[in-house]
Amino acid sequence: MTETTSGPTGRKGKGGRKGLKIKRVFTAEGTHPYDTLEWERRDVVMTNWRDGTVNFEQRGVEFPASWTMNATQIVASKYFRGAMGTPEREWSLKQLIDRVVGVYTATGIEHGYFASDEDAEIFDHELKYALAHQFFSFNSPVWFNVGTTSAQQVSACFILSVDDTMESILDWYKEEGIIFKGGSGAGVNLSRIRSSRELLSSGGTASGPVSFMRGADASAGTIKSGGATRRAAKMVVLDVDHPDIEEFVETKSREEHKIRALRDAGFDVDLGGSDMFSVQYQNANNSVRVSDAFMRAVESDSEFGLTSRTSGEVVATVDSRSLFNRMAQSAWECADPGIQYDGTIQDWHTNPETGRISASNPCSEYMSLDDSSCNLASINLLKFLRHDDTFDVEAFTKLTELVITAMDISITFADFPTQKIGETTRAYRQLGIGYANLGALLMATGHAYDSDGGRAVAGSITSLMTGAAYRRSAEMAGVVGTYDGYKRNEQAHKRVMRKHAAANDDLATVGTLERPIHAAATREWADCLKIGERNGWRNAQASLLAPTGTIGFMMDCDTTGIEPDFSLVKFKKLVGGGSMQIVNQAIPRALTNLGYQNEQIEAIVEYVSEHGHVIDAPGLRPEHYEVFDCAMGRRYIEPMGHVRMMAAAQPFLSGAISKTVNVPEEATVADFEHIYFQGWKLGLKALAVYRDNCKVGQPLSTGKNEEKEKEEPQVVEVPRPVRRRLPKKRPSETTSFSVGGAEGYITAGSYPDDGLGEVFLKLGKQGSTLAGVMDAFSIAISIALQYGVPLETYVEKFTNMRFDPAGMTDDPDIRMAQSVVDYIFRRLALDHLPYDERAALGVFSAAERQAQLNGEDPAQLAAQVESDAQSAAPSQGAAASGTSSEQSTEEERPKAGAEVGSSEGFMADAPLCITCGTKMRPSGSCYACEGCGATSGCS
């Protein structure tokens, strides 16, 4: 934390240098910041989910006792540098922080940021304190690279450019590849490339931007499969007036149809499947850049012109509403394209004299000039909630200015992947300060995420953060100068600062929590305008809201970025190994704020622990349910609730917001249109919408066949099925299982000549409703099997069914199940169906999945296993009981180590982590793994 002034300090030692005067806020002279924490040694051992082998091990690492094991594992495995087993290997968080902060402090001294050596030391201590206490974190490239022998790359987000020449297109491929190789992401707008309706100078017809997307997509896929730490993250943008816009809009939805057809034909099109190479455009997020003119045309249902890239003339007109509908239809089918609102983006642009903002990074939060980059840092909001449930405004403000100072220093020493990016970034010094844990803060203080009060808190905090950041930027401009492009864009930059301040003036407060925050924001914007008028500004951009995937776990955040809480019940890793189920710690604090007594709080927390939601919790008033609404679960936040929250924060951000609006599977194309249109009306810069299960596969149309049948009705006599009963003695097999903490048994009886004939399921306490329902379900399935219903029909219908309990299982072949029914029929398929039928249904054993990864033929492995099983089969099978009452099980209960989280919400088809196999969770518009910290995009 710092308290600073700028300008001449009056100190004459060492030349009486000009610089920032820094005062201690949280540290004390004579006490090192590390001494304010209790430290302990831990062992980090991370295993591979496929076979249980150890994929990372480092024992005796040193971390604060207050850090969770999850944060410890992520930092030790991802950020510690040096070869394992050598003295150079980092083993303490102190070493990691010292390595990074040492470079920042030394660079600040060298380039005149500090008024004295004493100020530099205070800066050093305050920064170390804030990092060690998890107040904030830099983005991952800082931890990867700063202070090492590697290139000092600090940016995670990049924007490239491409012109209408083959040389520029090939440069785009190369530059993207270099960025992907380093584990970062990039975005590009292809609208300068002439369309497939236009001619080349040679007289031939141009290929168009969509054709060149194929090459870039293949390149990204190759780099991803060639050993990068995570999949290539990229964004492709096309302007809505480009003549090829209709082809672009439907690019990925057509490929989704191909994926479904391949899957139905038995090809392996799972994530990373061997047959996915024939599917194109899967390595990028696509977005349409819509203009205000287009949106007004949609509003008035009028025609819209598509313009030539070479002449600028209108070459075709389209029905605007029809095109808008096709955008929504494609997004409904496959989640692409997203939408970016060009009018709003350019209206808040501080550097229009230099060039337009034409693209964004892959997660859509960084929007700036072409060939530029941005380094990110995120503040942990929950650290500033005092014990009396007030927000520590002063500490938050001081941390913001500390972090912005450090981020600007990093541009001074940073390396960049290309010369053009380096030149632009040094000239405009774009920064991206943001925050995490907003959802947890709101819940802890008794605010519903989708409420006027929740939005007022979010808007006030965002305004204070950006106002303080730009005020500090103006102070730094008085010490080390403005950014190089400032004079050229001075009037535009001042105009945008006034727009931010005016938006702050229009912000309405509704509760006691945000009023002092908003008052402080008002003071910060007044100082920002006053100091900026005199000094100018050091940075063209200051703030945005990133997904905060890996670094969110590093800070032990309950929620990432601007997201609400994911679920009310989580699992926590223990220092000694294993894990335990925990209820979100914001719940008891929220209940206290809502006026509940200790006895009531204990009862409600116990209910949530058992059920995963608050509906019908004892003593909880229904009007308080909304406070505990989450992204998933029985009570999920409605889609427009997410949009309105984004709109509350957007006027106070230099960039945009990384967030996907999740909608249920039953959402319609009209719902997508409404959300996209409201995003424009509410002043967002970008928006992406994801419909649950839209990528799992949809039924193909059979309309023509149905019409034919109606025209030619036929009466067909269907033979009546005959029940084939099992003999008195038949072979059977009993399997015990645990799914999401619920334990049970499956007894499967077979005909002597092979073939499943009955299934009995035991789940829940004998005599309970659940046990009775499972008994009835077992009888129904068994009778149907005996009447000839194929097992594969049940497997197809019941796998992927989602309801609680769900989560981790104790079965090495099926590590995650979306419900007990999902697990049961996957297990029955593995035990009773041949490989070819299972493969068509996407059900594989762990050994078969490993064989696929090793490039081997899993069919041969399955054949060998079946042969071995037949030769080892016992001559007599155990007699199966006609009821399941003879088997016993403990009453259903949460199990330690189970991943808890309702599967009745959205994103149930989120991917499994390719590193550790844990189901990932949404993090902005990307995914993040709570198990190992891996992300599917930038962080």
The amount of helix comes to 25-40%
Q: What class do helices, strands and sheet pairing give?
A: alpha/beta
Rg:
29 Å
Q: Return the average pLDDT rounded to an integer.
A: 85
C-alpha termini separation:
24 Å
Shape: globular
Percentage of residues in DSSP E strands: 15-25%
Largest sheet data = 10 strands, mixed
Tags for this entry?
25 strands, ten-stranded mixed sheet, alpha/beta, 29 helices, 939 residues, single chain
Characterise the protein shown here.
The protein is globular. Helix 25 (791-798) packs antiparallel against helix 26 (820-832). Strand 7, helix 6 and strand 8 form a beta-alpha-beta unit. The protein is built from 29 helices and 25 strands. The strands form 8 sheets. Strands 5, 6, 7, 8, 9, 12, 13, 14, 17 and 18 form a 10-stranded mixed beta sheet that branches. 39% of the residues lie in helices and 15% in strands. The protein is of the alpha/beta class and 939 residues long. InterPro entries: RdRp_reductase_class-2, RNR_2_N, RNR_lg_C, RNR_NrdJ/NrdZ, TSCPD_dom. Residues 869-887 have a biased composition (Low complexity).
